[in-house]
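Entry 14. Structure prediction run on the chain below.
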Amino acid sequence: MFDLLAIVTRKKYWRLHSVIIEAILRFYGIKVGSGFYIEGTPRLKIAGKASNISIGNNVSIFGNIDIRNRENGSIVIEDDVKIDNDCRFVAANEAVLTIGRGTGIGPYCIFNCGVDVTVGQDCLIAHGVHVQSSEHKFAKGELIRNQGHTYGKIVIGNDVWLAANVTVAKGAEIGSGCVVGAKSLVRKGRYEENSIIVGTPAKKISERGSIKDSEAL
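Output returned:
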């Protein structure tokens, strides 16, 4: 229905739609800055404090979005962030999930945070990226689902490119300027600034060079 209205009005409908959704989010207690734009419907599962969720100025969402928190989890989406369709943002326990200013997030990405996850400014996050700061314990003799989790903070610096279907696991620290190749698994550890990281598990294979060097790849 919404898409049909958008076609008929040459996308002008989405402006009215965005005003309505903004009002609903604020009614729930979510903080929303100016210039908010959305071409879909937010799915809200707020078991924590809605006031722990904030959306900055000029944030654009090009489809549906899934926002969840519980306990004292916080989600902070800074100014000028662009989010494609069907992404999920989850913060639990005392975790703070921060998406830095000017970052662009492709479709079908998941940020699942049991402890802090920080994504820096001006990052490019491609289709199907999964950022997960917890994992199940798995000792034998007991059901895995009953054993709880282990946690590790994740830090992703500024100007980082995570290519399609990358997984970032607990305890990873990706320095500013890094490039992570498609389908890579970035595990616990520190990755130096401007590294090119590829593989499962991911390893540094090179460093970013000049624009001329990049064009030659």
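Residues 28 and 50 are 6 Å apart (CA to CA).
Filed with the rest of this week's runs.
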